[in-house]
Amino acid sequence: MGEIWGVAAAVLSSALGGTSIGATRFLVGAIDPLAIGSFRFGIGVVLLLPLALLQLRSWPPRRDWPAVAGLGLLFFAAFPILFNASLIFTTAARGALALSTLPLLTMLVGAALGVEPLTARKTTGVLVTILGVAMALLSGLAAAPPGAWRGDLLMVAAALCMALYSIWSRPYIRRSGPIPFTTLAMAAGGAVLIIGSLLRGSFTPVADFGAAQWFGAIYLGAFGAALTFYLWAFALERTTPTRVAISVTVNPIAAALVGAALLGEPLRWNLMAGIVTVFAGIWIATTQPRPMLDWQRP
């Protein structure tokens, strides 16, 4: 049952991440990506901190602080910087497909580090989900700007950061719990983004924020950071890194559905086929075949 809850939490986390893309796209016209990350993770820490303090006994021990802070820099600073930089060179569709290599990278790195065995069923499920994402993004993959490969490589590097975070963070999450761990890690990464924003003067346009911009920033902090990454850590505590990572393929699907619902973007056949394929792949990778009964054996 714990595995099922872990996979469900990971899928919900990725779906929320997909909806956050809409809020990010809205805010990017008002402030730069560095400031968006600062708001997202800064507000996320403010919301998580009271909950973490209530679990004081589970706060990461001091010996874990350097490692947790390092993981926070990897996931909450390096990842968003690489993610945003990649979209300077490539399209959103190509970037989403490159990010969907996360479960494949997690599976390979986990096997190389001896954290998680490589199985044929899991590999099949991962490849099927990547195929599903490619189908869903089919219409957007045709157009590629010159030098798009640079953005694709940056997005794969971002996915590698996320894969390493998912693998290396598990023992720390188990020792302290998902809320205290996520709070400390997010604070470390968010602090770097805030300092960078202050040095660049990225917060200057905030003086002209209206209600819509503040709503978008608060949504990103509450749902796109606090809830999304708490659920991600919750999932890592209960299931394997690959089974958590495979849920990231839901992210572009959720973003496309939000675009259809709020922006009037058309729902094409390839999106619907991609949704079915993605969830089929998740089912293959996260379930185990039933053992044969004695009377069924040859």
From TrEMBL:
Assigned protein family: Belongs to the EamA transporter family.
Spans traversing the lipid bilayer: 33-53, 65-89, 95-113, 125-143, 149-167, 179-199, 211-232, 244-263, 269-287
Name this polypeptide is given: EamA domain-containing protein
GO cellular component: membrane
Annotated compartments: Membrane
Top-level taxon of origin: Bacteria
Membrane topology: Multi-pass membrane protein
Residues annotated as domain EamA: 5-137, 150-286
Record bears the keyword Metal-binding: no
This protein's record includes keyword Membrane: yes
Annotated keywords: Membrane, Transmembrane, Transmembrane helix
